[in-house]
Write a structure and sequence with these properties.
Blueprint lengths: L3 H10 L11 H14 L7 E5 L7 H8 L4 E6 L2 H14 L4 E5 L11 E7 L2 H4 L2 H8 L2 E12 L7 H11 L24 E5 L4 E7 L5
Parallel strand pairs: 1-2, 1-4, 2-3, 4-5
Antiparallel strand pairs: 5-7, 6-7
Length: about 210
């Protein structure tokens, strides 16, 4: 049986080049931007972008951290990271480190001030991946996550819309009721925003401990 990483690589291998033009990409960008805003980034900070894909959130992060900051971007798909590398080269960002590896296994360099799980359902539902990332964020650092979620069963048409939107880009839908639940124990006072009648969410909180 193929591993989760192998399934993800296979899904994105065929879609990486057109990922930024697929239906729903505008909505994904707006929700992602809100998650970046919730990080409350400052110049010079270090940010981990989990399952960064083609780098759709890089520009917003770079505007916040400036050239003195550092962006560590991780994705399991070499094809998606190739698109992200083209974006980085085109924009001339010298402070981006791209890492191709499963999030649960990657050795994250240094200590980060913030981490972003934007439309990163699989890593956010993997206890090892969550522990690895949040263990690399300083106490008091901000972690934000966003993506689709199931709504109440009586709004079935909206759940169908969510499924049609994500079915080619996730390898599992377990945990779609509360996708943030594995992050919550690390982030006391985790705040949840719901968008589009609850079909999408933005969650943010600070890592336990003194800043």
């Amino acid at each position: 049986m193929a591993s989760q990483a192998e399934l993800a690589r296979g899904q994105y291998r065929k879609r990486a080049r057109r990922y930024d033009r697929i239906p729903g990409s505008g909505l994904r960008s707006r929700i992602g931007l809100r998650a970046v805003e919730k990080l409350q980034l400052e110049r010079g900070q270090t940010v981990i972008d989990i399952a960064c894909g083609t780098g759709g959130n890089f520009a917003a992060i770079e505007r916040a951290i400036g050239s003195d900051g550092r962006l560590i971007a991780i994705d399991v798909s070499d094809d998606m990271l190739a698109q992200a590398a083209q974006r980085v080269s085109h924009e001339g960002w010298p402070n981006v480190t791209l890492i191709a590896a499963p999030v649960a296994d990657v050795e994250i360099p240094g200590r980060a001030d913030a981490a972003l799980f934007a439309f990163a359902h699989e890593p956010a539902r993997d206890p090892r991946a969550v522990a690895n990332v949040l263990g690399s964020v300083r106490p008091g650092g901000v972690v934000a996550a966003c993506g689709p979620k199931w709504v109440s069963r009586w709004i079935f048409p909206l759940n169908l819309f969510v499924w049609l939107l994500v079915r080619r880009y996730v390898t599992k839908v377990s945990g779609f009721r509360e996708p943030w639940s594995l992050l919550a124990p690390y982030l006391p006072g985790l705040e949840i925003e719901k968008h589009m009648a609850g079909a999408f969410y933005v969650a943010a909180g600070r890592v336990a401990g003194d800043a």
